[in-house]
Write a structure and sequence with these properties.
Elements lengths: L3 H6 L4 H6 L24 E4 L13 H7 L13 H12 L1 E5 L4 E4 L10 E7 L8 E6 L4 E6 L4 H8 L11 E7 L1 H8 L3 H22 L2 E3 L7 H7 L8 E10 L2
Antiparallel strand pairs: 1-6, 2-3, 4-5, 4-7, 5-6, 7-9, 8-9
Helix pairs in contact: 3-7, 4-7, 5-8, 6-7
Amino acid sequence: MYDKNTMREYLKSNVFKELYSLETDQEKELPQPPVQKNCFPNAKIIDLVSPDLFNCGTMSMIDVLKHRKSRRFFSDSPLTLEELSFLIWSMQGVKKIVNNGYATLRTVPSAGARHPFETYLAVINVDSLDKGIYRYLPLEHKLVFLGSIENLNVKLSECCLNQKFVSKSAVTFILTAIPYRMEWRYDIASYKLIAMDAGHVFENLYLSAEAINCGTCAIAAYDQQKIDKLINVNGEDEFTIYIAPVGKQL
């Protein structure tokens, strides 16, 4: 069992007092972790629609905020590639590369611009995309195809503790954390910051989904081993931290 009082300390600002007494890997001048995972040679890369060409997502911010809510019922209509591009760019899109390529400024805030996440997509019903698992390449604004999985929608639901609405999504976003990206700079304070940053990412997804007549409901209850296996991450250096099925509103 976890000790609640110990775990609560990581949510408090006091953790930064401890951090200041430590020598972080950044201060030791150890190599900085890359801002994006590499692709395998000859991987299938899919171009996304450039943000400069978006015609979707024009609903006013006040209307988006008025209507935003968690949605668990989706229609059978597919997402377009433009809509998918808009959603993923809203979550993790790179606006500027800085520090000689060692940091990025994105559509969401992140402590120290560390952006400790990778974004995987379980695509079920998106125009012009095969069903399967993809990973977003934020530096290039592209997708890399990782492979097909039989009965993907059913397996997604099983990974999410049999929450049935997951299997009805057009696409499910699976956010993983690579803790060392944050630990390199913030050591023991990283875990508070990673949790905060994950919230930033998925709130952008909520808002952008609402802006294109889609809906989502973020999920924190899932089978860790099953979902990590589904997207082929090792569960130690990289693991799932948040899941969000998205589909067109009924």
